[in-house]
UniProtKB/TrEMBL annotation:
The keyword Ligase does not apply. It comes from the Bacteria. The chain crosses the membrane at residues 6-26, 33-50, 95-114. Coiled coil: none annotated. Keywords: Membrane, Transmembrane, Transmembrane helix. This is Stage V sporulation protein AEB. InterPro entries: Spore_V_AE, SpoVA. The keyword NAD does not apply. It holds the Pfam family SpoVAC_SpoVAEB. It comes from Heyndrickxia shackletonii.
Amino acid sequence: MLAMFFWAFVIGGIICVIGQLLFDVAKLTPAHTLSLLVSIGAILAGLGLYEPLIDFAGAGATIPITSFGNSLVQGAMNEAGKHGLVGVLTGMFEVTSSGISAAIIFGFIGALLFKPKG
């Protein structure tokens, strides 16, 4: 049990360090960093490498933003088998719609409660 927590911490930390290096060293904007990490998660999922990472690291791989790319690809692949090309489009949003909705709703609530900048 302790090893599971350790590896979740290490793998999640490595993903966060990669994101921080993209900010500090590569001087990428938050939008570029976010897009790159989601794309990396999608590529790893497409190659079949992200699910073994989730099995190994648990929440260390499912909590970071790379997992969103994995979810997009998994949804698209599952629905493509059932509905073809239309399934690719609908599958991506079917799997991730609750997360996207939650982000929009909580972002709106946060903007109501606090003074947004910009």
